[in-house]
Design goal:
Two copies of one chain form a homodimer. The first copy, chain A, is an all-alpha fold. Chain A is built from seven helices and no strands. The termini of chain A are far apart. Chains A and B meet through helix 2, helix 3, helix 5, helix 6 and helix 7 of A and helix 2, helix 3, helix 5, helix 6 and helix 7 of B.
Chain lengths: 221, 221
């Protein structure tokens, strides 16, 4: 029985990692579709959303069954409830990738506002946060999780910088207002991806340390 | 023991409602601060965030204890896990109210872009969705919950309409670009509040009908 339970927990973790891989890939493809004006790539992100949604339901079913059948205690329960929340955050990351892919399809029709410099930096940061929040879960590494929290401030700073720059462009040349507006939406999506990675990292710290850091981070923001 | 458990579940539900009241009030005050250019009201929203955050942690502790000590089965477990997710959504609604209050403080310094017509409609819709998602929980009313899902489409339509209008204003007069940009952010915040209410309604339908409607709604969006 005990060994069976350990096996189920391990499987749950593997599913989460698989789902994280799908979500991360979706984000990467969506932003590349924007930068490379690649319509086919954007469309692929829209097509692949289904797999993420199905995985979310499968993971939730596993969580329900683990809690109902195994009646886990303390440490295991904390992991399982965190897994349920992380599952949710990963699905939302997939939603944000879909939003970015939709912006990519719209922005294709317009001339490029400016060379993309800060936006790729922001997307790399956000993708790295997603990756490391899951790495911190696998390794039960609270320090790595904390580094994700720190990077969320960097993402927010980049967002403010990009907003200021886009506002300047809009004020100088009303012809770019429409595509600049799409870039505002994409920036907001990347910000939210960073927020979800931060939620995951907070869950990992809670799991490892048994300490709730959520509103320490929220107050800091 | 059984009666004690029922009592605990009832208390959990009451805490959720209390928290929902705080979140709804925060949203209402934040948008009123924008419409009435009321700096003191915006500041009050920022001050009151702490109460929402503390309530979230209290509810999560109750959830953990209920699952760990009572080992609930089937229907009760479904309620408790939903309560945990709803708790999360309510806290995020509070975060969005804070964002709106911060926009209110910034937008005060600028002349008003245009008479507020669609934005109050959108905020009333979003506030009503939050209220009714919780009402549907209390009454276990899946029909009311479904009406929240329908209203989410209306919120998204209003968002698109407001965006189009703001883009037009920005293109006509670059002097309003900055305050119009703040209105874009506020519109995005209201959209997210609608999304969170939709999550709550989906949880209620799942709880009442035992059926997962999440990706029916997500695909529809």
């Amino acid at each position: 029985m005990e060994r069976h339970f350990e096996h189920d927990l391990e499987e749950l973790k593997e599913r989460l990692l698989w789902m994280a891989g799908l979500a991360e890939r979706a984000v990467h493809q969506a932003v590349q579709a924007v930068f490379q004006k690649d319509e086919a790539l954007a469309t692929r992100v829209l097509d692949e959303e289904k797999a993420i949604n199905e995985m979310q339901i499968e993971i939730d079913d596993r969580v329900m069954q683990l809690v109902a059948l195994q009646q886990p205690m303390a440490v295991d329960l904390r992991f399982i409830l965190s897994a349920s929340r992380i599952n949710n955050d990963l699905e939302r990351i997939g939603d944000q990738a879909v939003n970015i892919a939709q912006s990519a399809l719209r922005i294709l029709r317009h001339p490029q506002v400016k060379p993309y410099v800060d936006l790729p930096r922001m997307s790399e940061l956000a993708e790295g946060m997603v990756r490391d929040s899951l790495n911190s879960l696998v390794r039960r590494d609270a320090e790595l999780a904390k580094s994700v929290l720190v990077r969320d401030d960097q993402v927010d700073n980049l967002r403010d910088q990009i907003f200021r720059e886009l506002l300047t462009y809009m004020m100088e040349n009303s012809a770019v207002i429409y595509p600049a507006f799409e870039l505002v939406l994409i920036t907001k999506n990347l910000e939210r991806i960073g927020d979800h990675a931060t939620n995951i990292a907070e869950d990992v710290i809670y799991m490892v340390a048994g300490r709730d850091v959520r509103h320490l981070a929220a107050d800091r923001r």
